[in-house]
Amino acid sequence: MKFLIIMHINPAVLDALTDEEKAAIGEGHGRFMDAVKESGELITTQALVDPSQAAVVRVRDGQPVVTDGPFLEAKEFLGGFYFVDVEDKARAIELAAQIPDAAIEGLGVEVRQVMFADGLLEA
């Protein structure tokens, strides 16, 4: 079963962390990536730039209208994800609990099963 483990970022929470706490998060992600690579469960992982560097595209009257910045005003934004192939949802949740962000008050890690990929419904 494929799951997307999504990391939600709150800049105010991250800004309040010490340099040592920030370094620990990075090191924790490194250990996590090594472990899921070794287990063969990691498909891919990506980290995203800050939403201030995003572009929002809307088509109005058949013409694209592009604006800078995030789609919605929100205190949290999608910071990145791990895409994993695991036995079941329980294992995906177990992996999500190992991500350092999950232990930080004000941050969250979301687990969502993939239901459609490459034109095929997932079982």
Automatic annotation (TrEMBL):
Domain YCII-related: 1-114
Family annotation (InterPro entries): Dimeric_a/b-barrel, YCII
Alphabetical list of PANTHER family matching this protein: BLL7171 PROTEIN (PTHR35174:SF3), BLL7171 PROTEIN-RELATED (PTHR35174)
Protein name: YCII-related domain-containing protein
Species: Actinoplanes octamycinicus
Family per record: Belongs to the YciI family.
Pfam families registered for this protein in UniProt: YCII
Biological classification of the source: Bacteria, Bacillati, Actinomycetota, Actinomycetes, Micromonosporales
